[in-house]
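Chapter review: from sequence to fold.
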Amino acid sequence: MWLSLSWLREFVDLDDRSPERIAEDLTMRTALIESVERRDAADGVVVGRVLSRDRHPNADRLSVCEVDAGGERLSIVCGAPNVAAGQTVAVALVGATLPGDLKIKQSKIRGVVSQGMICSERELALGDGHAGILVLEDGLVPGQPFRDVRGVRDVLLEIDNKSITHRPDLWGHEGFARELAAIYGLEFRPAEVDREVVPGSGPLDVRIEAPELCGRYYALFAEGPVGVPSPGWMQRRLVYCGLRPLSLGVDVSNYVMLEIGQPNHPFDSGRIAGGVIRIREAAAGEELVTLDGERRSLPKGALVIADSERAIALAGIIGGEWSGIQAQTEQVAVESAWFEPIRLRATSTALGLRTDALARFEKSLDPQLAERGLRRYASVLRQVAPEVKIAGEFAAAGEFEHPPIRLRLRADRARVKLGCQLDSREMEAGLSRLGFDVSPEGDDLLVGVPAFRGPRDIVSEDDLIEEVGRLHGYDAILAVLPSLACAPARLQPVNQARRRCEGVLSGRLQFAEVSSYPYVEDAILERAGGAGPGPYVLLRNPLQQNARRLRRSLIPYLLEFVDRNVKAAEEVRLYESGRVFLPREDSSDLPDEPLMLSAVLAERVSRKTGPASVLRRLKGALEELAAELHRPLRFDTLEVEGIAWAHPIRSAAVFQNGLQIGLISTVHPEIVERFGWQGETAAFEIDLTRLVETEERPQPYRSPARFPSVRVDLSFLCPFTLRYDTICEQFHQAAPDLVGIELLDEYVAREMQPGQRSLTVGLCFQAADRTLSDEDLVQQVDAIRSWLAESGANLRGDS
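The token string follows.
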């Protein structure tokens, strides 16, 4: 949002304070000022009056104008289609330099000498208008410097909108002027409003049919030329503050909104059927063509302004094209209202539509500001267009008000919280300057919160202390480190496990952490194989219409992140930890939110290191995590029905102490093909919440071995039905001195019998009480051979 410093000075005398000082003081006490920009006209640009306009003798699209530039008459060739005799214009004299380093010289254009240039908005850097010249208001003196024209020279302050989201009173110039008056101890002059108009029936019948959504509604009727351009100074202020001038009726509306923060909307009252305004909810399937020319299907329950036949505006958001102000409009009805902010926000999100009016209404404005906004509109309209006749009465409906808020401020507590010794009278004076109703009670203060601060801004004693502190100036409070005895917070077991796993993955295993949204887009779910089984928790008011589901798994987003990275890296290792949302049988209950840990390992191009090699490496990473948490894992067969991304064969359920805590799998070939990947990809997902519920089993300490170990590699053919964990278990039973088994290779070839694979394992033998002899080793290896032969395995050789 932009603030005009000249506009602010109309409400408070800032004397000769520099814009930089004002920006710094506002930043330290009110809201962040992001930048200070100066707007000015170039030297050599003056006011001129077009005395005559003749057609160029050698060019159909050019004109030769005689211009009074203050004591001298200039002949200027102009190509603008809107130039006409009698206009007051901005003239760049010979020798002037315009923005963009455009130097004005006397030149001959198609045989006619041109002694300057009649300028457009864009050429003067006042706006984007360039279809024609800038036509100024009448009454200006030819020859006066253009920069002295009202509204040309100004300083703009850019506000960080995020720093005022909690302040409904700061969405207009008047609110910031009140802040400056309080900061500097100056008099604050609120904007004048029209006292001549009074509430009554008015020419329009106003009916609030949704009183819970519209607490107040006012409609003012005026008659006269409101479709004509507004005064130049008003247009320049609107442009500087980021709005495009349209017409007198619309510009006055936007001017009032930027001035006091109350949105309002003008209708062409001649197009309001039946002379009635109905504030109601939209019906199912109802449509509205809005002012931006878009035909919008309105969500059911959206609040609309309607006449006797149709919806003519989307309440609090945008007007309708049918009832908008046209160039020929002679009758206008101006609305100013209070609308329920939550419904407006929901409607805006459903339509994907944000406007300046909504940005203010959703902050829950003071309901009394609606009438004041209407009266301010009447006051400004009388000032700039006295020929427009304003009705003596305006229609009024609704009397909603926010409940008053009164709080006690304990001066002693404020001093402790702020860390400085402030007198209660200083606190009283500061709060009074900010508009609070303050009554001393001993050393305490009874404080009435002004209605313009809204119902949610100041709700506790600490909020009042913040007001006292910021007005005093946090930079004026001496920084002292608190002397507090504090013990480090003990993390919950599940969060401890999360941190330890993240340390192993990010450190030893070189996985990169990613972070995704708790809701998942439909397109991402579809690429990951679809929504899958089970219901989803649906958002009533989603940020995106294509992302209504809260995630049940972290895998879909991980696959999306793999797709973004796998084309640029040989190998992608990613992980994420976060909560998923599982609905309960009773839909009224909150969902279960277990903390999950997921990881994915993907190759850009398959390295041909054997089937499921990536899966085995990822399984090793998972086993390292289990070792870190002292909870050994067991893997068993997995029913993958309904898990779209999981491979039908190369997958396993993960168990800890008999409890299934997750799964690990190669990504389904159809998913890989859908993404267009060339290499192998595997993923796992475990429930950390369940994992920490199981008993921790730390590895007992073992002293270093006193005797050497012996390594034997063994290769054999075995059926796929012979599980690897069974092989390991039987090897240990057959060989009492076997202390370690390492899978070295898995191999499948066409020449093998169907259903067989070749395994090569490294066996480590070591005794605790002696050095193993050749006889000991041969005896134990023979026992392993015997079990393999009994299990249908064929030895390929050993070494």
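Two observations follow directly from the output. The longest strand covers residues 45-55. The chain has a mean pLDDT of 92.
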